[in-house]
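Task: complex structure prediction.
Instruction: return structure tokens for all chains below.
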Amino acid sequence: MNPEFSYLSEVSAEKGNLIKGLQLIQEREGYVSDDGIKAAAAHFSLADAEVEGVLTFYAQFKRNKPGKYQISTCDGTACHIKGAPLIQEWLTTALGIKSGETTEDGLFSIETVACLGCCSLAPVMAINGRVYGKLDRKALLKIINEYKKQG
Amino acid sequence: MSEIKRIKVGTASCGLAAGAGAVLENFKRLAGDIPVAEVGCIGHCYCEPIVELELKDGTNIFYSSVKADDASVQAILALTENGRFTIPAERAAIEKLYVTRLAGRIDPKDIEEYKANGGFESLKKATAVTPAEVVEWVKKSGLRGRGGAGFSTGMKWSFLAAKTAEEKILICNADEGDPGAFMDRSMMESVPFQVLEGMLIGAYATGATKLFIYCRAEYPLAIKHLQIGIDAICKAGLNLLPGREKPLDIMIKEGAGAFVCGEETAMIASLEGQRGQPRFRPPFPTDKGWNGYPTAINNVETYANIPVVIADPDAFAALGTEKSTGTKIFALAGDLKNPGLAEVPMGVTLGDIVYKIGGAAPGSVKAVQTGGPSGGCIPADKFDVKMDYDSLKELGAIIGSGGLIVIGNDRCMVETARYFLDFTHRESCGKCTFCRVGTMRMFETLERIVAGKGQESDIDFLEDLGNKIKKGSLCALGQTAPGPALSTIRYFRHEYEAHVRDGYCPVNQCNALSDVALDPAKCVKCKLCIKNCPVGAISDDFKIDNSKCTRCNTCIDTCAKKAIARVKKGTGYDSTPGK
Ligand SMILES: Cc1cc2nc3c(=O)[nH]c(=O)nc-3n(C[C@H](O)[C@H](O)[C@H](O)COP(=O)(O)O)c2cc1C
Ligand code: FES
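Output:
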């Protein structure tokens, strides 16, 4: 197996652990590359296509390298009702990328998720797991600018 | 000497998102030797961050919307009268806290504090009698599953208990797939030991040997607290049930973002490492589940109810209505003043929840969506409906997991239906043709309608197709997916008709069917809108050109004088020749 992914041996090789293995790869690499798929296939004794079939079923897995700051905008029901589409529009204007894309400098990527469980503070987004609630345009731009400044 | 015995800061996800992290830090820094504890969520999410002071005389004071700056923190340490929070009497009269009694009141990571508050007493009581007796208690209590289908928990447990097998599996469904529901997250974050105690009692009653918790990956804090809970339980030896030789295996599995995995058979497939596709039942999971072993699945809130049930099954049965006993935790979100969680006896009216607990202004609400993408909407003139499994079914809605999305007067119901079909058509696992293709067609039709390209016949088409999808789908995802469209057509047909017949959106929300205009009478010519418009659609003489405008609402949002608004399609300025 590709030594880059030797940490896969942390999960035992039963097929039931495939999703866990893929989650581990994503945790380490930020996404699951073609090499990652091959490594998982080797570890769990599966065909590449089987791994890919499972992977593509689940929205969580990313096949492209995400930005340093991963923005998850929530488009769950509560956030949608409270204006999530506008938040996304404003983010796109501010960063020049849409959901699923990464900025050229590799700093930001956006993904859309369905509910972070903070619906009472809708609309919300998370950046690298930190949740920001009660967003409006001003708050959103302030947060993004702070991250930009940090670089 | 301070009168304060202990300070508690609510740091569940909702609290953290509202800024509780900084509040916690500053209390720790400024409180001297008064202990500062992190607690979960008391349900009043609208006024997070929340700080509770336990005083030495045994009373306590809550503060809401606490700011992190030194002055604010010091004022609270000096017991300021400002910012104190008491539960409004109107709300307190309806709420009955049984299941959420300890949520937000104790340190979720401390097994000793849970024990000191009656924790594991029910486990002790249950394991002192036979497993069969425990199943009888649960049956007698009338407890029905809180995950959506409302099946009797006692019955389900009796099926699993009746099996003999080398391994028996008990799963906690913590996938909380309904976007807009968050009671399961809150319970796992705030009282993980209570959920785990319910599972231990379940394992004892059913003879289960392996326990899985399938939790959505979007809930990292819930996963962390559950893991701390499992470790503490194992350390205390509570995982070795009386009469067993082997301790229970308790494991958390992270979901990977697929709504359908909340369905039982799909969840089992996912736990086996496969694509999460539901399969035909029978065989039922209690006959043939995870890796072929008998398996039962219950929801987080169901397990959190178990210690309450065991403490007094008859008292539980006396709560709520005859066929829906006990309490239900509802998650309130959307267009209302007080979003958060509320635990009320089954059978309380929707109106009481929305107005008296949620604080929605009378007349401001158009409908409530219950049951998320699998549910339906209930129009405001039916808010006297009792919230129990059977009453809601009659209205074409379901309790579901208990998520209530309040929809204000200025939201478009067609767009809301489009949103749900967008969700379900993407989440369809693709196995059944009606669900896979049918929800896609419904979504496309709704997209067309909100884009101003709908036809009169589309409404009938949606109804017809929706009814066919209900019949032609294997699992409840497809069977319920048309619900949001069908119920909005049933109660808000006039909104659909305005879109397809008259070419405008009655609340001016749909981009293609509304214009943007500036009211010169209100405008003070500050030019902020001109500066901020990303597409240069506003001219120097403050005319908004609707042919250029992308309806991004930036100008509406920037205008301090509220001079810009969405207006009826065709009434705004448009530079296109001939318009
Ligand atoms: C598409 C779909 C999604 C579901 N999602 C969930 C969920 O997120 N959480 C849950 O507890 N039950 C969910 N259910 C219901 C479960 O299939 C099952 O009825 C429930 O977990 C049983 O537990 P209970 O008897 O305690 O309610 C879902 C069902 C379907 C069809
Ligand atoms: S809907 Fe956005 S956090 Fe739940």
